[in-house]
């Protein structure tokens, strides 16, 4: 029997890498369907890898509600910051037989402490093996509103799994137009400002994850998802066993500002200098730039997860080569 999967966000950077990866590893174990915006640029790519397409808007609640219970797995990889999609998916799953598994991507933007942009060892460390840390999620966190809905579904008997990643970076597969959420936000923020900002001493950290390390984290995560669907597999009860961190490595915000400034100069002949600014002048990414991000992936580390991908300094010039269209769509 094949497992049917319905994906939201299938045309994005992460799924653009993950779908071919899973297909290579699991052959014909799955049938794939993507719910995409009408006319999505990703349709040709998805069709080329045998993904069925349903075109529709996230506003079409009835259409989505009528779909989700027909699949073995519903995978929310759309926009973890925006709760509008889980706001439709979760009530529909709760109205159904609760036989559909919900998989969601979230982000370590949840696990930050404002430090004025400075490094601060006393900033709170969040650890995914600590149930209290997962239960501390609230609606004001970056991805908190959608996460809370997913956790509500879990508490009401839906088989829910969440992988919470750091800012993901990597080259775009042919046919995938998105550079991913983090690279898009940081690049467009700097272009809008005309400089690459840091706050305080710039020693606050962001956690970043190369696509190669996302794939290795995902394999460990996915094995657990599949085991929970298999009726003979162990089904964890503790919420922290179902909400796994994959943050990547820590990079200082000043170093990120330098990396992007160099990229703009070398690949686009744009002079966006590194600038030390107050939080009000750091643009829409300022809540991250003013903070220390500290997420510890104890669950995946215990399973042997190790980082091996290239750094953002090495990879960024290849992600946005000269001639890339800016700002990023
Ligand atoms: N990349 C990161 O740094 C990062 C870090 C942590 C968490 N995440 C989360 O992981 C997931 C995947 O990230 P990603 O970087 O691969 O995303 P992405 O490249 O931005 O792609 C997401 C896809 O979702 C669809 N989408 C997004 N907003 C939509 C909307 N309002 N209405 C309809 N469709 C919409 C779009 O597909 P169509 O145009 O085909 O419909 C888009 O290609 C997201 O939930 C993201 O928030 C990402």
TrEMBL record:
Gene3D superfamilies: NAD(P)-binding Rossmann-like Domain
GO annotation, cellular component aspect: cytoplasm
Protein name: NAD-dependent epimerase/dehydratase domain-containing protein
Superkingdom classification of source: Eukaryota
Alphabetized GO MF terms: aldehyde dehydrogenase (NAD+) activity
